[in-house]
Structure formats: structure tokens, C-alpha cells
UniProtKB/TrEMBL annotation, chain A:
Domain of life: Eukaryota
InterPro entries named in the record: SKP1, SKP1-like, SKP1-like_dim_sf, SKP1/BTB/POZ_sf, Skp1_comp_dimer, Skp1_comp_POZ
Listed name of the protein: S-phase kinase-associated protein 1
Transmembrane helix keyword on record: no
Domain called SKP1 component dimerisation: residue spans: 119-166
Keyword Transcription: no
Domain SKP1 component POZ: 4-69
Pathway(s) this gene product operates in, as recorded in its UniProt entry: Protein modification; protein ubiquitination
TrEMBL record, chain B:
Pfam families named among the record's database cross-references: F-box-like
Organism in which the protein naturally occurs: Orchesella dallaii
Annotated F-box domain residues: 6-55
Signal peptide start-end: none
Name of the protein described by the UniProt record: F-box domain-containing protein
InterPro entries documented for this protein: F-box-like_dom_sf, F-box_dom
């Protein structure tokens, strides 16, 4: 079985099968680039991911492992289709997988899924963030995501006025 | 920063935030817009068509129950629903800031029999008042077998102070509600109420009662009309009571379009117009022109999306070329982005006359097929490719995306409805 070494930003190496790695759009491209540039077709590719630390990379690989037999979703899929798949595709395993994570980890996971082009993982993590937004007031959203209002004085007043009919008291 | 590893939502690049927001209900998007400037920027850049309320797209009168099943919400029907709900609330960890116990912020009330109604109708309003300050959407069923549920409407509305959307599905025969003397005792003030959708037959009086009270604050209105209601005479009346409408969806049953009866006041700044005609035994192709020049014309300057569902129940008839109606000149639609029209136009000799050049900003064109057409005609990928190529060749325009979808909304089948992007179009054409 052809393998590939994937190395995280903090230097941890993961040895995974190329078949699995190719389910990530980014890794697939990297492996192909390596093939073209390498004389020895037997050489084991080594890919450095400088933006993702080991803990997160492990989670991504774990997710890929679990979903290795799912059909690959094209990244540029129609918005509505993507949504349907995210709703239908979220399995019990995914829920258990995401349940223990705090928001910081989820954010890193989103960035990683986006960087590595793993559509399915991106969908379920974004959906999780969405569920943290839905049903909350503006102030609660700010608290939950540690955001501060940076509207200038009347700017916010104006948007509030425009949206008066839908903003909570 | 002390905690170097922690990443916040502020670190997400705009395209990822956009993906997150794409899962949100439109009313939630409006709330997110007020969180901070970077969110507002991302939300403002999402094309307006994506903000289009999916309810309006996916719900067709006959399929209300189907859609209802696919719409997550918290259902109240019997006594157990209340105790189950309380149990669920109790089991949530207190640190869970996201404490909205209502799925999708939606409350569904569906009393199917008098016994269900009497078991719950007194208790429920007080219960919702206590727990339901996060409910934004109410789906309310009126069954003929439970006439009392009509009278409970004011009470229920009173209890949901943050209501945005109300969807009422009327399941009864035409004459039941048409008692001119019926009045609600008093309808409550609902500051945030802005979307009203009434489906099912025999709803004219209900519509009038609600619009009289809430018309000035409505942004979206949708209703189903049957001929026997004689509503055509009242279109102007109803719409004139809603001067702030942005979305309008009308479903017409069995009427020949009579332009003089349905031209809408040009004072509205409609952005999205949806028009559906049922059981019509007349040329759909002709109706396209008719709707565009009569119904849509007053809003030509402001409309961003037009959804026309003009298909017949029987889709096998063909246009007789010797009997072509004259296509009138369309007005300019300068900012129209998305147009949805019947699939039958694809093979109609009227296609080249469609005057798409009047829609300079058109980006998405979708064809609605009937179920039969999809099954019988659009079988193989080969034929689909031919269809799309025909479309590209006949319509020289700025469209970036052409797609075909069944008017029977079936989420599971969605992926089989093809979407062609300009960039993926074969070069050899």
C-alpha cells in the first residue's frame, strides 16, 4: 500500500495511505506534484502542512478515516445541494466526534478542513457553528464568539433601524 | 495574546464565514448582520438570491405536508409533547449558552382532532409565553375537523412575542371559513412579525383579517387563491395594505389571467416575485410573456428574482406553431438576477423570442419541469447535455448558470438535478 507522510506545523508525522490522503483536495494535489517532480516513482511523498498543528491534523485524519468510503463531494457543489448533504450526511459518529470539542478547536478544524479541502468535514463543522448562532440575540452571539461590536456610533443605529422588524428587543 | 492556540471566529476567512452563514435562516442572517462590521461585510456580499426565503421556494400548496416533514421544528400536538419538551430543557447542561430548545426556532402546532385541541389549547399559550421567547417562526395547522383552532389564533400569537414568520396551513373545504361575520376578538401587537404565508383552500377571509392588522409591517406575503374565493377583485386591496412588501408569492388556481384584475400597485418595491398557476388549460408559453409584461412590469426596476410556475397538470400538449400568440415587448429588467420559468419553454418555438437581452443582469436561469417531463424526457445524461447546449445556443446572454429542477420538491433527489455553469460549458460549441 502506497503511503504518504503528512507532517504538522509542530513536527509530528502521520503515516497514512495515499488513498486516504487523496480524499483531501489539497493533499491530492501535493501528492501529484511530488510524483511529477520526483524521479523515483517508489519514493514516499512527504508533505508539510505549516498551518495545522498535530492535534488538529489528527482529528482531520481521523474524520477522513471514518468517512473513507463516502462519495467525494466536489468542492464547488451547488450551495443548496451542499446544505442537503450536510443535513443528511451528519451521522451519529460525526455528532460524537464533534461533541467534546470547544469552540476554539472547532474553529481550527474549520480552517484545517478549508485548507485541506475536505468538503464533508467543512460542512459539518460550519453547521455546528451555525447551530451556535441560531436562536441567539446579537449580544449573545457576541459573547459566545468573543466578538466586539465595532460599528461606529450611528452606523449600528442605522442597521438596527433598517432591520427593526427582525431584531429582538 | 496569552493563549496562543485559541482561535476565534474572527480568524475565519470571509469565504468560510460565508459558508457558515449559508446554513442560516434568512431571519438569523439579519441578526448576524448586526454583530460586527466584518460579519456585515460578508453578509452583504452574499448574492441577494441566496437570502431568498427557502420557505417560499420549497413550499407549494399541495406539498405542504411533505415540506412540513422536512422542516425541522418543535411540534406540539398532544399532552406528551409538553412533558417531553420540559424534560429536554431540563437535561440541557446549564453552561450551554445555546439554550434555544426550539429546533430551528420553529414552533409547530397541529391539532388533528378535537380531543387533541381540548387537551392542550388552554395550557399551551401560557406555556409558550414562559418558554417560547426564542420562537421566531410558527407553523399552524387549521383542520376542518377542529374549527376551534381558528379561534385560538390570537391567543397563540399573543404568547409568541418575538414571532417573525407565520405560516398557516388551512386544511378544509372552501366554504367553511367564508362566513363574513367572523372576526378575531383582538389580534396582538407583534413588533417583529414580517412574513406571512397562508396555504390551503378557503383562506381569503383569514388572509384579509391578518393583513388588515399586520399589513404595514409585512415584508413577505404568500397566499394560495382558489377561483371560488373570487379573490381576483381583492388583489389590489390586499396588496395595498402591505406597502412594505419585498417578497410576494401568489398561487392561482384555475383562472384565466385577466390582466386588468391583477395588475399590482407600482408603489411596491418588490425584490422577489413568485407566481404559480395551477390547472391551467392554456398556453404556458404565452403566460410567460403575459406575467412578465403585466404582473412583473410595475416592479421591473426593483425585482431581483422572478419565479414562474405555469405548468399544466397535463404536460403533453404541444404548441401549435400556426397558432402562436404574439409576444409583447418586455420592459427592461435591469437588476433581475434569477429567473425561473417552465421547462416547456425549452422546446417551444417561443424560446428565441424570450427577449433575455432585456435582462442584462441575469445570472441564473432555472427551468422547472413537471414530474412527467422529468421522468419521460430528461432521462439520460446525453439528452440533458443536448438540452443545455440548445439553451446556450439559443440564448445569447450573460447567464452564468443554467439548471433544471423538478417542481416537485424532493430533497433526496436534488443532487440529480443538473446545474451547468458557464465555466464548465464544453468549448466545442
Amino acid at each position: 500500500m502506497a503511503l504518504v507522510r503528512v507532517i504538522s506545523s509542530d513536527g509530528a508525522a502521520f503515516l497514512v495511505s495515499q488513498r486516504l490522503a487523496k480524499r483531501s483536495g489539497k493533499l491530492k494535489t501535493e501528492i501529484e506534484t511530488f510524483r511529477k517532480s520526483s524521479d523515483n516513482s517508489e519514493a514516499q511523498p512527504e508533505i508539510r502542512i505549516v498551518t495545522i498543528r498535530a492535534e488538529i491534523l489528527r482529528l482531520v485524519l481521523q474524520w477522513l478515516q471514518q468517512h473513507q468510503n463516502d462519495p467525494v463531494l466536489p468542492a464547488n457543489q451547488n450551495e443548496q445541494d451542499g446544505r442537503g448533504d450536510a443535513e443528511m450526511g451528519q451521522s451519529q459518529w460525526d455528532r460524537d466526534f464533534l461533541a467534546p470539542m470547544d469552540l476554539g478547536i472547532v474553529m481550527e478544524l474549520i480552517l484545517a478542513a478549508n485548507h485541506l479541502e475536505v468538503k464533508g468535514l467543512l460542512d459539518i463543522t460550519c453547521k455546528l457553528v451555525e447551530s451556535k448562532i441560531t436562536g441567539r440575540t446579537v449580544d449573545e452571539i457576541r459573547t459566545a464568539f468573543k466578538l466586539k461590536s465595532d460599528f461606529k456610533g450611528n452606523e449600528e443605529e442605522q442597521t438596527r433601524l433598517e432591520n427593526r422588524w427582525c431584531v429582538e428587543n | 495574546m496569552g493563549d496562543q492556540d485559541y482561535r476565534g471566529v474572527a480568524d475565519l476567512p470571509p469565504e468560510v464565514l460565508e459558508h457558515v452563514f449559508s446554513f442560516l435562516h434568512p431571519s438569523e442572517k439579519r441578526i448576524c448582520r448586526n454583530v460586527c462590521t466584518s460579519w456585515a461585510r460578508v453578509l452583504d456580499n452574499i448574492p441577494p438570491t441566496q437570502n431568498w426565503n427557502p420557505w417560499f421556494l420549497k413550499q407549494h400548496t399541495g406539498e405542504a405536508m411533505l415540506t412540513f416533514r422536512h422542516t425541522p421544528g418543535t411540534l406540539f400536538q398532544s399532552k406528551e409533547d409538553i412533558s417531553n419538551f420540559l424534560l429536554d430543557v431540563e437535561q440541557r447542561p446549564p453552561e450551554d449558552l445555546h439554550s434555544n430548545p426550539f429546533i430551528n426556532s420553529t414552533l409547530i402546532i397541529n391539532w388533528r382532532s378535537e380531543s387533541e385541541y381540548f387537551a392542550l389549547h388552554q395550557e399551551l399559550p401560557a406555556f409558550i409565553k414562559q418558554h417560547g421567547n426564542r420562537v421566531r417562526k410558527l407553523l399552524y395547522f387549521l383542520h376542518e375537523s377542529v374549527p376551534q383552532s381558528l379561534e385560538s389564533i390570537p391567543q397563540i400569537l399573543q404568547s409568541i412575542s418575538n414571532l417573525h414568520s407565520l405560516i398557516i396551513y388551512c386544511d378544509y373545504s372552501n366554504n367553511w371559513l367564508i362566513k363574513r361575520s367572523f372576526r378575531f376578538p383582538e389580534l396582538p401587537q407583534l413588533k417583529q412579525f414580517c412574513e406571512l404565508e397562508i396555504m390551503g383552500k378557503g383562506n381569503l377571509l383569514l388572509l384579509k383579517l391578518l393583513v388588515t392588522q399586520y399589513g404595514s409591517q409585512l415584508r413577505s406575503l404568500s397566499w394560495f387563491e382558489v377561483k371560488s374565493d373570487g379573490i381576483s377583485k381583492d388583489w389590489r386591496f390586499i396588496v395595498a395594505l402591505c406597502p412594505n412588501l419585498v417578497n410576494l408569492k401568489m398561487t392561482h388556481e384555475d383562472g384565466i389571467l385577466q390582466p386588468n384584475l391583477i395588475d399590482l400597485p407600482a408603489t411596491l418595491a418588490l425584490k422577489r416575485l413568485s407566481y404559480k398557476l395551477l390547472y391551467k388549460t392554456y398556453y404556458r408559453e404565452y403566460e410567460f410573456n403575459n406575467v412578465m409584461t403585466v404582473i412583473a412590469a410595475p416592479f421591473a426596476a426593483t425585482v431581483e428574482m422572478i419565479w414562474l410556475d405555469l405548468d399544466l397538470a397535463n404536460s403533453n400538449e404541444n404548441v401549435n406553431p400556426t397558432f402562436l400568440p404574439i409576444m409583447n415587448d418586455l420592459p427592461d429588467f435591469p437588476i433581475l438576477e434569477e429567473l425561473v420559468i417552465p421547462y416547456s419553454l425549452v422546446k417551444s418555438p417561443l424560446l428565441p423570442q424570450m427577449q433575455v437581452e432585456k435582462m442584462r443582469n441575469l445570472r441564473k436561469l432555472m427551468f422547472l419541469d413537471t414530474k412527467e417531463e422529468f421522468q419521460n424526457r430528461l432521462v439520460g445524461p446525453e439528452e440533458l447535455r443536448e438540452t443545455f447546449e440548445l439553451l446556450w445556443s439559443q440564448l445569447s446572454l450573460s447567464v452564468e448558470e443554467i439548471s433544471i429542477r423538478s417542481r416537485q420538491y424532493k430533497p433526496k433527489l436534488k443532487r440529480y438535478y443538473p446545474v451547468y455553469h458557464k465555466s464548465s460549458r464544453p468549448n466545442h460549441l
